[in-house]
Structures are given as C-alpha cells and as structure tokens.
Amino acid sequence: xxxxxxxxxxxxxxxxxxxxHHTYSWQPAVPWLDRLKAxxxxxxxxxxxxxxxxxxxxxxxxxxxxPFIAENGALLQLDGELSGRIMGQDYAAVRAxxxxxxxxxxxxxxxxxxxxxxxxxxxxxxxxxxALLAQxxxxxxxxxxxxxxxxxxxxxDLLAKEGLAVTQGGRFYHVMSQGSSKGAAVRRLLQHYRQxxxxxxxxxxxxxxxxxxxxxxxxxxAVIIRGYTKTPVTVSPxxxxxxxxxxxxxxxxxxxxxxxxxxx
Length: 264
What we know:
The chain is α/β, with parallel strands linked by helices.
C-alpha cells in the first residue's frame, strides 16, 4: 500500500465522488484534502465537468495550478499550460455531427447546446451561473436521451462513423472523440509526472460511475465509490487493487483513502 511519503498522485472523479451527488458539497473530504496538501500530494480532478467549472473548484479547494482532466478525458490540462489539450475533435465539430444525425434520422435527445442555462440547472441542480459554466464546452457534448436503448445503439454506431463515441456518466450521456477517455488522459498524465522527475509515481483513482471505469483501470489502486447509477461499475480483471466503498460521495471518498493509504 502507498504511504503519504511516496511519490503519489490522487486522481478523482468529482460528481458523486469527491462532490456529493445531490448537494455538490466536498466538506467531508476536507481533512483528507488538507492532509494530502501538507504532504505535497497532487489531487487531480478527472471529471465530465468543463474547464470553466473545474478551475473555480480548484480555487475553492486550494488546488489551483494542479493538472486536471475535463469533459471525460476530452481535454487534458498539464502543469504550466495556458490552455488544455483537446484530445480529438472540438465542440463545434461534435455538435455538428450530432445535429446532422438528428436531422437525417430523427433521433430524440437534448444536448447542453440545445437548451438554456435554466433547463441545465433543472437537470443538474446547479445554479444558473454554474449551469452556464457547464455549457462552456470545448470538446464534448452532454445529452439526455429520449428514445429506446436500441435507438441509442443506432445513434452510437452512426457516431462511430464520424470518429465519435458515447460514454455514460452519472446523469448524462456524453459524445466525444473516439480514443478519448478518462483512462487515456490519465495515462498521459502519469507519463508526464514520471518523465518530469524520473520518480516511480504511484496513483490512486476514485470514481462512482461507468465513465470512470477507464480511469480506475489506468491507476495502481482503484476506489469504486458507491453510486446511484443502475449500470454496474466493473473494472478489468487485471486491476488487482480494488476497493468498493459502503458510503456514497465524499464520505465514500474518504473511506477509500483510509483503506489504501498507510500513515506516514
């Protein structure tokens, strides 16, 4: 098990993990966040949230300047970069492909780009101001599906011909470039850390939803936080170190940290 004195990075999902699914509070995790900060252990957000949402959250938690992964891995922000790296097609291209397919095949869905911030706020429980930040997307689209699972499979197959893929989060489906994922971005991030100083960085990943599986497969130690999705979160058999929490949200986050990290 890793300790607080090892070269260690914590990579965490936000909604339903570090942030409470209903209230978006992270207060139960503050003691652990303070402990990690005191030992200079980076906490990297790996979320479906946008850059515009993540940066204020980092500031609120005292984590400004730390790398982050946004929009389910479609964007990676490393140390010192002025703007993140878009992993594939940009938002305009993603939206254009979705709209073409909707016009041609009559698919019924509502993306963040189809509605105003008031409706996004109703969907998410966010304030109007925070909902606007959620709509400032750079490389992926979040959407609600209004048809059968079979039609969703048809939509997914047609998107694949456009070089796009669908992933399922805790509240929404997401369209992004093929090859982009939380796991792919995590692997690039870990390579970045190891190349910076040559140390054998270890990683703990925490997540609660199906879109976190690739993240959990890419780290050394995986914490599956109890969540509300009906789709099971099942990691690869190659992932040897897995802990499933009893608690939800930030309480579960702390439970996972307690399980894997030994005292300094």
